[in-house]
Hints:
Elements: H1 2-25, H2 54-63, E1 67-68, E2 72-73, E3 81-89, E4 98-108, E5 120-127, H3 133-136, H4 138-141, E6 158-161, E7 171-181, E8 184-195, E9 200-209, E10 216-218, E11 227-231, E12 240-247, E13 255-259, H5 270-280, H6 284-297, H7 304-324, H8 331-340, H9 344-352, H10 358-366, H11 371-382, H12 387-401, H13 403-410, H14 418-435
Antiparallel strand pairs: 1-3, 2-3, 3-4, 4-5, 6-7, 7-8, 8-9, 10-11, 11-12, 12-13
Helix pairs in contact: 5-6, 6-7, 7-8, 8-9, 8-10, 10-12, 11-12, 12-13, 12-14
Amino acid sequence: MAIVLLFTGGALAIASVRIGFLLIVRPSEVLWVNHFLPEWAKIKDVDLDLPQSRKQIENAIYHQGQIAGKVLPLAKTADQSFLLPIFQKRPNCQSDCQKIVELRAYNLSQSSEVSRQKHYEMVARLKIEGPEESFVIAPLVNITNETQGANIALPLNHIESFQGNDLPAGKWFYLRGQRNSGNHSVNYGHIIYYNLKRKHLKVMQSWTSPSGDNPKWQQVTGDNTKELVVNQTVGFEPRVRVYQAKSFNSINNPIRLRLIALKPPTFKDRGYQKALLIARKGLWTPAFKWLQFIRKQHKGKISADSIAQIDLIRLHSELSTKQANINWASPSQQVQVYLIDGSWEKALQVFEKSPSNSKEIVSLLKADRGRLWDRVKVALQVNPNRPQVQTWGALILAAKFGDSRAKSWLKTQKRLNKNNFARLEILLARIEDRTQ
C-alpha cells in the first residue's frame, strides 16, 4: 500500500507540474480543466478572447493566414455547436493545395454580453498532422512491388462525419487524403472522436485503404454497437481491419478503438489454434469452416473475444468466397482466386482444362511473392496428406525454380498415389514447356 501511494503521489505531482506549465505557455491545451472549476476560476485562453460571431471567427482565421472550412454540426444543428476544420495552403502544389491543420469545436455562448447575433466560444481544439507515407502504403509493400515509403507526413484535405445508428457515444469523424501509388489510389487518414460531455477532441486511429474505400461502421460481431471497418484489400487478397469501441478508464477519452487481432488465439483448443494459424496465412474459408465446427462442439464455452476472432475470419471468408464464385474471363485469375480461397481441386481442374492458357498460369505462379506458397506450406503443416495441395506446391516450385526442384521437394512429402502422380506429371510437363 505504501508503494502504491508513493507511485500515485509521484504521478499526481508530475501531472500537476505539467498542467501548471501548460497553463502558463499553452493554456488552450488544458481547457478541459474548466469542467472542474467554478465560473470565477475558469481559464481564459488568449486565443479565445470573448465569444465571437461566425463571421468574426472566420475573419480571425483569415488574418492568421489560414482558411476556415465548412462547419460540421456537433448537436442537432450547427447553430448550437459545430466542428470547424481549419485549412492552410500547401506550397509548390499542383492539386489539392489545401490541407487541414487544426480542428476546433465551438458552442453557442450563454454569456449575457452576447448581442442579438449568435456568438460562439471555442471549447476544444486539436492540431492535425497526416499519417506518415510509410504507414499509408504499408499494405501494398508485401503484395506488390511497391517500395517502403518515407517517414514524411502526408496531407489531409477532407473531413466527413459518420452517420447512422448504433454508433458509440459521442461524435465521430474521419479525415481523408489520397495518394496514387502504381495502379492503386490509396485513401488514408485519421479517425476523430469528440467527447460531447467533456468537450474533448482526439485522434483515435490512423487508417489506410489501398482499395480506395473510406472507413465505415458496420455490424461484424453481433454486439449492440457497430465496429469500425477499414478495407485493406489489395487485388484478390482480402484484408480487413476491424476495430471494436471499448470502454476505457479515462475522463476525457472514455472510449478506445481496439483492433480485433488473430494473434494470440483467445481459446485454448488445439483445433482452434490451428484454424487461426491457417487464417493468418490467408486460408480464410477453410479456417472459417473449421471454426464453425469447433464452435458447435464448445457451445457456450467460447468467450466474446474468441467470437470476435471467428467473426473477423468469417468476414474475410465472405470476401474470398464471393470472388471465387465469379466466373473470371481469364483462367489465370480463376486459378488465383481459387487458390486464395483454398479451393485446391477447383484450381487444378481449371489448369487441366486450359492447356492453351498454360503460359498465363505459369506466369502467375512464377510471380508469386510468397502468398500462395505460404498457403501451401501451412495447409500441409496442418494436414500433410493433401494430394491436391502437394500438387500445387510442386507446380509453384517448378514454375519458379524448375522441374528438378519440384521433384526434390516432393520426396520430402507424403507420397502421392499413382493416379495423383500421373496427373502431376502431365501438369509439370506443361510447366516445363512454358518455362523453356
